[in-house]
Amino acid sequence: MLVVKVGGSEGVNLDTFAADAAEVIRSGQRVVIVHGASHATTTLAAALGHPAQFITSPSGHSSRRTDRRTLEIFQLACRGVMNQQLVEKLLRNGVNAVGISGLDARLWEGKRKDAIRAVEDGVVRIIRDDYSGTVERVNTKLITTLLDAGFTPVISPPAISTEGDPINVDADRAAAQTAAALKAETLLLLSNVMGLLRSFPDEATLISRIAKHEIDGAVQLAGGRMKNKVMAAGEAVRAGVARAVIADARAASPIRRALAGEGTVIS
């Protein structure tokens, strides 16, 4: 079992991703695809007159400020834009892809955060109307039912809270929870960077291997969105996934290159 998360950032090549996914699936590999929609959400939010806001927690984690209107735009971008584009490209390459979201059949379920802490101009403030959370349970029955029937699931946020609210969840960490729940052998986190860089953006400083006991140090080294990816990879490995690879989705054959160890391998 292989879980592949492809990023929604600018620069990611969905055409080469879909072509490569088709080759991997034709080889007999069972693949579950997870995606985000960060760039599409930001673009759509600006077009709709509700520009994106990002907040940073006291520990340095960056996330999207998700009020109710932003959540609606996020859902539009995830399902109406990114998910359908990706399904279309996979279908063109002969993959029997099915687009679903974390809402469907409570595929991804977790608790909506009661409040979040954000640092603004050096001051910590409390936000209580945010629709965000983390995935705590995965409906593996739905995923395996699709796989057993010959379909390739393409999963997007949002998730659903235990109270029934849609919630914005980090797609990298949701993919990690999905890989762990499915007892996948490998988790791939593909985006518009080649892996964890010791000195961003110098690609010559790529860290190619991280051992399990080095994960916490790697999280501290990472900045911005990369911090979430390293956290997600670490969570997957600590939950029993044999390895997680943070790799580049801009080049040809991104999945097979990552499986060959190109990028940052955490095991």
What characteristics describe this protein?
alpha/beta; four-stranded mixed beta sheet; 24% strand; single chain; 8 helices; Carbamate kinase; eight-stranded mixed beta sheet; 267 residues; 16 strands; 36% helix
How is the secondary structure organized here?
Blueprint: E1 2-6, H1 14-26, E2 31-35, H2 38-47, E3 54-56, E4 62-64, H3 68-92, E5 97-101, E6 108-110, E7 116-120, E8 123-127, E9 137-138, H4 140-148, E10 152-156, E11 159-161, E12 166-167, H5 171-181, E13 186-191, E14 209-210, H6 215-221, H7 225-238, E15 243-248, H8 254-259, E16 264-266
Parallel strand pairs: 1-2, 1-13, 2-10, 5-10, 6-11, 13-15, 14-16
Antiparallel strand pairs: 3-4, 6-9, 7-8, 11-12, 15-16
Helix pairs in contact: 1-3, 2-3, 5-7, 6-7
CATH architecture: 3-Layer(aba) Sandwich
> In the residues, how many domains can be counted?
1
Q: What string gives the helices and strands in order? A: EHEHEEHEEEEEHEEEHEEHHEHE
Strand content: 15-25%
